[in-house]
Amino acid sequence: MREKLRAVALAATLLGWSVAAPRVPARWNPLPHAAFGAALAALCRAPLGIAPPPLWTGLRWGATAAAPVLLGVAAGTAIPRVRAGMAARQLPAPARRWLLLRIPVGTVWSEEAAYRGALGTVAEKAFGTAGGQLFTAATFGLSHVPDARATGESVSGTVLVTGAAGWLFGWLYTRSGSLAAPMLAHLAVNEAGALAALAVQRRTGTQSA
């Protein structure tokens, strides 16, 4: 019971952070987000597996998962409806800071350390491997509700899609024993989508100033 309460309390903390994080001034990102994820992983003594030899296994699994994501995003830009959505998307500026810092450090590292590392470790102890992965994935999906509301996206659709992605990231972490695997997959999803949107907007002349 104690482990379950701990898992629920940590999930509630993460959901609270998902509401508070967007209010952090953009000029500070990614420092608070990265520090938050690292602190939780350290407090929960999460086995990150980001040093050899598990690192090499994680990189192999991550690259394998990232490849179809990159191909899928590239293929998606050929679909008119997808291109239109990318053209209308509001992108953070400046693009270089977004691509090189905010996505890899403020989003990918922060979320993987906090969800797969910290919450995944605690939830597995509380609910077992399969139950822990489902619990973590559900929390990850719910954490994107504020983003969905802010951008006008479907809340239920966002929760389902990000929850499914969270389950896959958790599976990669468990399977490889390294946080590098879900980090690479997560990075591929976010960076490929960002680069595709930037390319479409530059091509159509709709890029924000």
Helix/strand/pairing class, anyone? Answer: mainly alpha
Number of helices: 8
How much of the polypeptide forms β-strand, as a percent range?
Answer: under 5%
Approximately how much helix is present in the residues? over 70%
In total, how many domains does the architecture comprise? 1
Specify the overall morphology. Answer: globular
State the low-pLDDT regions, or none: none
Overall mean pLDDT stands at: 92
**Largest beta-sheet characterization:** none
Order of secondary-structure elements: HHHHHHHH
Spatial extent as radius of gyration: 17 Å
Report, as a whole number of angstroms, the end-to-end distance.
Answer: 53 Å
Total beta strand runs:
0
Characterization of this structure:
The chain has one domain (2-204). The chain is globular and about 55 Å long. The termini are far apart. It has 209 residues and is mainly α. The model has no long low-confidence stretch (mean pLDDT 92). The longest helix is centred in the middle third of the chain and has 48 residues, at 95-142. It has helices at 2-20, 31-43, 54-76, 80-88, 95-142, 145-151, 155-176, 180-204.
Defining key terms:
209 residues, mainly alpha, 79% helix, 0% strand, globular
Give me a quick take on this structure.
The protein is mainly alpha-helical. Helices cover 79% and strands 0% of the residues. The protein starts with a helix and ends in a 5-residue tail after the last helix.
Topology diagram in text:
Layout lengths: L1 H19 L10 H13 L10 H23 L3 H9 L6 H48 L2 H7 L3 H22 L3 H25 L5
Helix pairs in contact: 1-5, 2-5, 3-8, 4-8, 5-7, 5-8, 7-8
